[in-house]
Amino acid sequence: MASVNKRSIMTLFSGAHCPFSHRVRFVLAEKGIQAEVHNVDADAIPEDLMELNPYGGVPTLVDRDLCLYEPKIIVEYLDERFPHPPMMPVDPVSRAKARLVQYRIERDWYGLLGELEAGDPGVRDSAGARLREELIAADELFAQDQWFLSEERTVMDIALGPLLWRLNRFGADPGEQAPALQSYSERLFALDAFQASLTDVERTMRG
């Protein structure tokens, strides 16, 4: 493993349109964490990032002599290092449930990203339709609490926000067919922290 050059300020290597990077930017903004954000071109990965991350990908977080490069690990680290406001429930059972739901979000919905961004329009359209139908089927879950399955914002909302922001781009927005989801999305997108997490590229995704 490459050694990590110690940096005086926390640094995030981010993709300007990467939903996984967006998750990290969202939690940074939600917790008011000061960090330098360097948006990286996926087609021109800088040499210093290659030295830090053996996979050369984003997001990659450097905090002094620590380097992390998996979004879920980065989010959990930031939540533990900066515990207020907490993004995980306090008790073990609720924490386990939150992790399980986050896993389902990543597997079932984020798992479609490869097809949603495929070069073949037919593949993209099919994946968009599948995601839209799954969100419609899940609509009642968004009606249960102020936030997703909780009265407080958690890692589940951090995971959902960047994906839901991209639904128009993916042709997967269920609109009025999922009224609870639509209301939840509006509340989430209106947050100062969410707006602060957006790059200029991401702002164009919803017109």
Describe the model.
The chain has 207 residues and is of the alpha+beta class. It has two domains: 11-81, Glutaredoxin (3-Layer(aba) Sandwich), CATH 3.40.30.10; 92-191, Up-down Bundle (Glutathione S-transferase Yfyf (Class Pi), Chain A, domain 2), CATH 1.20.1050. 51% of the residues lie in helices and 7% in strands. A four-stranded mixed sheet has the order 2-1-3-4. A hairpin with a 2-residue loop joins strand 3 (60-63) and strand 4. Helix 1 (19-31) runs parallel beside helix 3 (71-81). The longest helix is centred in the middle third of the chain and has 18 residues, at 92-109.
Please identify the top-level CATH class of the largest domain.
Mainly Alpha
Total DSSP helices: 11
Tell me the number of structural domains.
Answer: 2
- Quote the CATH topology of the largest domain: Glutathione S-transferase Yfyf (Class Pi), Chain A, domain 2
Give the overall silhouette. globular
Give the end-to-end Cα distance, rounded to a whole number of Å. Answer: 42 Å
Question: Which stretches of 5+ consecutive residues score pLDDT under 50?
Answer: none
Average per-residue pLDDT, rounded, comes to 94
State the total count of DSSP E strands.
4
Overall helicity: 40-55%
- How much of the sequence is in beta strands? 5-15%
Q: What pattern of helices and strands is seen along the backbone?
A: EHEHEEHHHHHHHHH
Major sheet: size, sense and barrel closure? 4 strands, mixed
Oligomeric nature of the chains = single chain
CATH architecture of the largest domain: Up-down Bundle
